[in-house]
Design brief:
With 138 residues, the chain is α/β, with parallel strands linked by helices. It has three helices and five strands. The chain has a five-stranded parallel sheet, covered by helices on one side. The model has no long low-confidence stretch (mean pLDDT 78).
Length: 138
């Protein structure tokens, strides 16, 4: 199935700067290089980085960005569902935000989008970094 018709703007990683600067980037950390690349390329004031295990973070971040590490529990989407509202500022509607969906587990992403919507967010830029190729399943 071809999902490219869902793409509003298909860009290369080097063209991300064309979207401008964001107030907040939300991302779900995984050790996948595509996640690290997006974190390096998006210009923003603040990063809220969801992690399941802080000890798994193997990159250093630029000190000019505020990183919030939010443990989500050991593969527990229940924690995320119960606390996703806590991760969102009261004035989120006035912010220009983006989400890097590359590392987000689908249930977490859907819950988070629903929470943002319920808080009044009407416009969100979502980035997803496609892999160059997929490995054959084992």
């Amino acid at each position: 199935m071809n999902f490219t018709y869902f793409y509003k703007n298909k860009k290369t990683v080097d063209e991300i700067h064309e979207f401008g600067k964001y107030d907040i980037l939300f991302s779900f950390y995984s050790m996948v290089d595509r996640v690290k690349l997006i974190l390096e390329k998006i210009e923003r004031d603040e990063t809220i980085l969801f992690v399941e295990d802080e000890s798994s973070i193997d990159i250093s971040f630029d000190d000019s960005y505020q990183i919030k590490k939010v443990p989500c529990g050991s593969n527990s989407s229940l924690f995320f569902v119960q606390h996703s509202n806590d991760f969102i500022e009261k004035d989120i509607v006035s912010k220009k935000i983006c989400i890097d969906a590359t590392g987000f587990p689908t249930p977490y992403l859907l819950c988070f989008l629903r929470t943002l919507y319920s808080r009044g967010m009407k416009q969100i830029d979502i980035f997803y970094s496609e892999p160059k190729k997929y490995k054959a399943s084992e």
